[in-house]
Design brief:
With 166 residues, this protein is mainly α. The chain has two domains: 86 residues; 63 residues, Winged helix-like DNA-binding domain superfamily/Winged helix DNA-binding domain (Arc Repressor Mutant, subunit A), CATH 1.10.10.10. It is 84% helix and 0% strand. It has six helices and no strands. Helix 3 crosses helix 5. The radius of gyration is 32 Å and the shape is elongated.
Length: 166
Amino acid sequence: MKNKERLIILIALLAIVIFLLADLRDDFIHGGGILHLGFEALMALIALSGVFVILRGSFKLKKNLEQTQIKLVAQEEATDEWRKRAQIHITGLSAEIARQLNDWGLSAAEKEIAFMLLKGLSLREIANIRGTNEKTTRAQATIIYQKSNLSGRADLSAFFLEDLLG
């Protein structure tokens, strides 16, 4: 349930409680029957319970969101730290991958696609990024595999990553 919906329900339940309590007071003053008074009191209690349930849920959601944000910040910091430690290696690996793609005789477009394939992008995502047709991207990927004598995306990734993983 979204915050706006939760707020609307909360306001409606509070209005119901207020109106029921006002009616209950009026009925009590004018000698309403015990069964009627009890029924209205029960309805007010049920509506008030709904208010508490919604408020409790809102506070839990807020607490969970804060904890998730803390975890996300910690994860982003850990990722940044890893990148800083590995930057020299990443730069060197990127340069060596580019050198190998040159050795295979890939065109500039094919090199761009090869890097995106190594990053794990789908052919559709690559086509969208490059503003081309997915069939064109698929054909270019096939040419990359042919020029490199590799059988597909997994072999392309393994060619560069296999020795890194020990």
